[in-house]
Amino acid sequence: MFDTFKRNVEIESRKRLQCNGCRRQTIHTLEAQCVGNWNEEQLYASIYGWTNFSLYRCGACDEVCFEKASYFNELYDHDSEGNQRLIPNEIQYPAPSSADFAFDTDFTPTDLNELIEEMLYALAGSKLKLATVALRMVVEFIVNDTKCAGRNLQRRIDDLHAKGHVDEVQVKLLHKIREKGNAGLTSALP
Q1: What would the DSSP string read from start to end of the chain?
Q2: Which of 48, 96, 167, 175 is least enclosed, having the fewest CB within 10 Å?
Q3: CA nearest 182: which of 154, 141, 148?
Q4: CB of 58 closer than 8 Å to CB of 26
């Protein structure tokens, strides 16, 4: 809960962000900003932080995006001169997409396209465990779609290789994705 929440009226700021309209990094102008502050007195220390809610407009195409940047006095780093600087946790909405992540979806199943979109959305939102599990689900979709035999994903990936759909390098990559996805899933469960 915030102790104070107010609109920042002195907003002359520009920032380089990934634009969903342009699908590239462009300079965005800060249009509006609200700041929420909180402070919690503990027995031995004061813990405080703030969150900026910012509305940015792309200078190239006028697309609007929202950014939430949270700061917490216990999360800091040091610059080259040894001064402390807080590390923000920044999340952009909608999640940034890039032309680099474009897929030719004309010949892929809609369900696979949706999985890939959700994986990229999780990745863009820095939800790495979720993105890893979603990528594993993409591999599982591929082996199911190609009707690979096996009781588990490891054997179905091996069957995908045996059928000649992937080479040695690709099968190793698919197994690595399977392992990382399994690890991400088990670490997310209680």
Answers
A1: --SEEEEE-----EEEEEETTTTEEEEEEEEEEEEEEEEEE-SS-EEEEEEEEEEEEETTT--EEEEEEEEETT-EEE-TTS-EEE--EEEEESPP--GGG----TTS-HHHHHHHHHHHHHHHTT-HHHHHHHHHHHHHHHHHHTT---SSHHHHHHHHHHTTSS-HHHHHHHHHHHHHHHHHHHHH--
A2: 167
A3: 154
A4: yes
Task: Quick: pLDDT tens for 125-171.
Answer: 778 888 888 889 999 999 999 999 999 999 999 999 999 999 999 99
Tokens of 182: 């399994």
One-letter amino acid for residue 15 of the chain: K
- Identity (one letter) of the amino acid at 68? K
